[in-house]
Design a protein that fits this description.
TIM Barrel; single chain; binds ligand LLP; 11 helices; alpha/beta; 2 domains; eight-stranded mixed β-sheet
């Protein structure tokens, strides 16, 4: 895999001199290439790719993806409003949120495509008296995630309507006068690509129970390789397997389905990094650890502290010798660790890095997704890292 640290030492120094640190740096050219790669992969199946705004709602990224022809997945009415406010057509947005929108009737009238994620949300739709096409998110009873905290399907997940309640959904449809045209499932994020081949069959077995469905949205969750030992989901291979399954479904049922997916991570993760600076180096004695303290932390980037997520870290100096360091953030919080044990934020895992000095620049890769969008903003009253774009 290519390094996720896409800035040279020279460019990093120039950016730090111009903007200070810490900053998020996004690679416009990489974002465009990724979106085009996705559109190409999806074209073989006539699949509509939607960008999951929650991964990174930065307006420049939304505008770029809109210009390139992607649709959008909004996880709250606020993401939907943001997209519409920057000129994205409502009908390009599918809204499926855990929290019922405050003004549901306005959304239903606005041509945003609404997907109900609970029986209660279906009731709220019926109460508006609105009659039109609608989606339902179903919990298919299976879940998978790169970590146990990123699985969003199965008996311990609250996302979507439990699959055994499909008869209730059909009764609601008759009563409401609405037409359920979209089945939406999303079983988790960052999981083993092999699982996709079984999840499509599970999804199609649910579609069979909903005769009015013409659109199957397989959600997001496509894994990227943030570390050299990780494997990326082969998007073209997955879409091809979806396409084969849909063709088989059409042969069996004479029903044509339009396919949608909604990646977030796969599009933006490795086109974003954090550029920070070493503010201190401490140790805990000859049998202890060497700690690098950065001028960033969980108030900008939570993934390592939350999941034990692994990200490439590079000390951008010309040191020829290396040392094992624990890299920590600047928050007064013992969990503000950037080198946790893989998958276990409770433990630390020292990382072999260039010998560091106070003032050195340090880059953290794979931070384009769920970085700025998922930070503990304002913790210890630190200002949030600014977000800048380069065209690498
Ligand atoms: N669609 C739905 C309905 C979702 O809930 C999500 C993510 C996506 C699409 C996009 O999934 P992606 O392709 O980005 O994996 N904070 C975690 C990821 C949680 C994602 C939650 N839902 C992380 O940092 O890995």
């Amino acid at each position: 895999m290519a390094s996720t640290i896409f800035t040279s030492r020279k460019l990093a120094a120039k950016l730090a001199a111009k903007y200070g640190t810490p900053i998020y740096v996004y690679n416009l050219r990489g974002l465009e290439a990724r979106a085009k790669q996705l559109l190409e992969a999806c074209s073989i199946a006539g699949c509509l790719p939607r960008y999951a705004i929650k991964a990174n709602p930065h307006e420049r990224i939304l505008k770029l993806f809109a210009r390139l022809g992607l649709g959008f997945d909004a996880s709250s009415e606020y993401e939907g409003e943001l997209a519409v406010s920057i000129g994205i057509a409502p009908q390009k947005i599918n809204l499926s949120s855990q929290q019922p929108p405050k003004d549901l009737e306005k959304i239903l009238q606005s041509r945003v495509e609404f997907t109900a994620t609970s029986l209660h949300q279906l009731e709220l739709v019926a109460q508006t008296g609105w009659q039109g096409n609608i989606g339902v998110r179903i919990n298919p009873g299976i879940g998978a995630g790169g970590t146990n905290r990123t699985a969003t399907g199965g008996v311990s997940a609250s996302f979507g309507i439990w699959h055994e309640y499909i008869p209730k959904i059909l009764r609601w449809q008759k009563r409401s006068g609405c037409q359920i045209v979209r089945l939406h499932i999303h079983i988790g994020s960052g999981y083993d690509p092999k699982i996709w081949h079984s999840s499509i069959n599970t999804a199609l077995s649910l579609v069979e129970q909903l005769p009015s469905v013409t659109i199957l949205n397989m959600g997001g969750g496509f894994k990227v390789a943030r570390m050299p030992d990780e494997t990326e989901a082969g998007m073209a291979k997955i879409i091809r397997s979806f396409n084969i399954a849909l063709k088989d479904f059409r042969r069996r049922t004479d029903r044509d389905l339009r396919l949608e997916i909604e990646p977030g991570t796969w599009l933006v993760a490795n086109n974003g990094l954090i550029l920070s600076r070493v503010v201190d180096i401490v140790d805990t004695g000859k049998n202890g650890f060497q700690f690098i303290k950065l001028d960033t932390g969980m108030n900008d980037f939570l993934r390592p502290a939350m999941y034990g997520a692994q990200h490439e870290i590079e000390v951008l100096n010309q040191a020829t010798s290396k040392k094992h360091y624990v890299v920590v953030g600047h928050n007064c919080e013992s969990g503000d660790i950037l080198t946790p044990e893989p998958g276990n934020p409770e433990l630390i895992r020292p990382r072999l890095l260039n010998m560091a000095g106070i003032g050195d620049l340090v880059a953290i890769g794979g931070a384009g997704a769920y970085g700025a969008s998922m930070r503990v903003a304002g913790y210890n009253s630190f200002p949030s890292a600014a977000e800048v774009f380069v065209d690498e």
